[in-house]
Amino acid sequence: MISLVDPGDVFYFLLCSFGVFFTIKQAFVQIRRRKIRKRLGLFKAKSLPLLDPFFGTDLSVTIFNQIRRSELLEGLDKRFLRFGNTHSFQLGLTSIVATCDPDNIKTITMNAIDFPVGDVRRKGLSILHGQGIFAVEGSDWHRSRSALRPSFTKGKHDDVAVLETHFQDMLNQIALSNYSVDMQDVYHRFTMNTATQYFFGTSPRESGQGRQIERLLESIDYVNQTVYLALVFGSHSPISLWRWWQTKKKMRVIHAFVDQHVKRVLSPDFKSYEVNNRRYIFLDELSKSESGKDPIFLRDQVLTSMLGGKDTTASLLTHVTFELARNPIIWAKLRVEIGKLDLELVDMKTIRNLKYVRFCLLEALRLYTVVPINMRSASADTMLPVGGGVDGNNPIQIPKNTILWLGMFSMHRRKDIWGDDADQFNPDRWENLDPGPAFVPFGSGPRTCLGQQFAFNEASFALTRLVQTFHELEPLSDAPWKEKVAITLGSGNGCKIRLHRYTSSEFEQ
């Protein structure tokens, strides 16, 4: 009589065999790593004391609730204060090391081989950026970088006439609101207009697409939130999948807006806007690159660049305005510095030389870091210079596939670096300050933001013109600042103020 093997028994046998094999393999890996730590004098990063140390279920719930209450950065900051500037924890199957130490962050960002972008960040950012420079690495990153760098290098970031046109549009929008407005919304429209003018050669206002701007901005904001959740919990997490269909619809809106401009530069009868108005057009220049005839490449690169310029500048302007409305003494200092300028002779060179304007923007970048959390992944077993031992000053071992959370927001608010007033807006601190690697608002290393000069020039211009136009900023709410984190940092309570405009006689005085 032939006896048949129960398929269930086979399945359980294979499952148990795999479990035994995996356990033995991990045991040997841990033994090898322990020997390396002993030989090199390395420590393990301090682990958070979790109820579930294996999968971090309790921490996952905590982080989800913090995101829901817009308190993720606050929670991360408290963990750094309580458990050290570098510590480790589990989120599901992912091992994470979080750090706000300047030496560790410098080591990570300067070493793209040991600490590449990694799958988590790549998959998360690709939702919005496709194969744009933010979401790729290796040969794809070098391809994007080589195509974008000449476009940013040759581009004019200081065309005051273009910026003034859009600033006047912004003033009209403020006036329509009777000078009581949420400047966060105003700045996002302003930077969308300036960014599309620079990158595409025409703004939504000029091309008759003004009514579409609301839908486009809403779509960008929604997808940014999706990307943020994917970076924290993974692109295949339940919360990310829940938003998948709506995100896809929003991306169609975004792609349709960019594709119309890509089709223009790829059409046989293409005639550059640059020929007509003699102004530099980013997309036109990018289309001359080696990969400039690939429509998907063009779309992803110019979309990434446009959003980087728009969101970074809007975040910076929102937060510097938020603080200036609550600090009339600082506003008065700006008025003294800028009041000396001849309105008819203001150019970008003059604006760049305004010391206190620069101090205010640097302080806003410190206190409200535009990209508050960055991410990397360990491509192999490696190390970081500090974080181990009782005092946290010894080097630590970083196992392969560990995800690194770089707490830029927390690093920029550390009182042992910036002083007891680290959580206060104080532009005067920059008078004799050289923070070194403790201040990296635009990143550092090979992946330093290419458009940082674009963002800083535009913000400097807008702030200067704001001070020239209004003699007082009055907050409409005493609600404290609240985080709104997506890829870039926003204000959860907005920036609701009343602006008091100069009369001609007042300004002359």
Automatic annotation (TrEMBL):
PROSITE patterns: CYTOCHROME_P450. The chain crosses the membrane at residues 12-29. Keywords: Heme, Iron, Membrane, Metal-binding, Monooxygenase, Oxidoreductase, Transmembrane, Transmembrane helix. GO terms for molecular function: heme binding; iron ion binding; oxidoreductase activity, acting on paired donors, with incorporation or reduction of molecular oxygen, reduced flavin or flavoprotein as one donor, and incorporation of one atom of oxygen. Pfam families: p450. InterPro entries: Cyt_P450, Cyt_P450_CS, Cyt_P450_E_CYP52_ascomycetes, Cyt_P450_E_CYP52_fungi, Cyt_P450_sf. Gene3D superfamilies: Cytochrome P450. The keyword Transmembrane applies. Its cofactor is heme. Belongs to the cytochrome P450 family. This is Cytochrome P450. It comes from Microthyrium microscopicum. The lineage of its organism: Eukaryota, Fungi, Dikarya, Ascomycota, Pezizomycotina.
